[in-house]
User: Fold this.
Amino acid sequence: QVQLAESGGGLVQTGGSLRLSCETSGRIFTYYTLGWFRQAPGKEREFVAARSWGGGSTYYADFAKGRFTASTDNAKNTVYLEMNSLKPEDTARYYCAAAEASFGSIVAASGARRYRYWGQGTQVTVSS
Assistant:
C-alpha cells in the first residue's frame, strides 16, 4: 500500500513560481512511475508530468515543457514538481499519483487510469 501527500500549493501571481512536493510512504519499487495530474473546476483531470521512481525518462504535457520540472528524491521519499512562469490557466488542483509500472511512452504515462494510488491534491491559484 502506498500513501501520497501533496503540499506546496498556494496563491501566486502570473509569472511566479511554486514547488509542489509529494511525500510518499509505503513500499515503492524502482519501476513505479510517479505522476502529476491537475484538474480545474469544470474540466477533466489532465496529465502534467511523470517520472520513474528509479530515474530514467521523464514525460511532460506540452503545456508543461520548458516551464515545469518533475524530480524525485528517493532518500526523502519525495517527488517534486517545480513550476515556473505560471499562468492563470495553470490554476487547478494538482494531484500526485503512483503507478505500479514503468512506461515507455508519454501516451502510456499520461493515462490516469494506469495510476493506482492518488493523493488528496493541493490547490494552485495563479492570479492575473
Observations:
- The CA atoms of residues 32 and 100 lie 5 Å apart.
- The two ends are 40 Å apart (CA to CA).
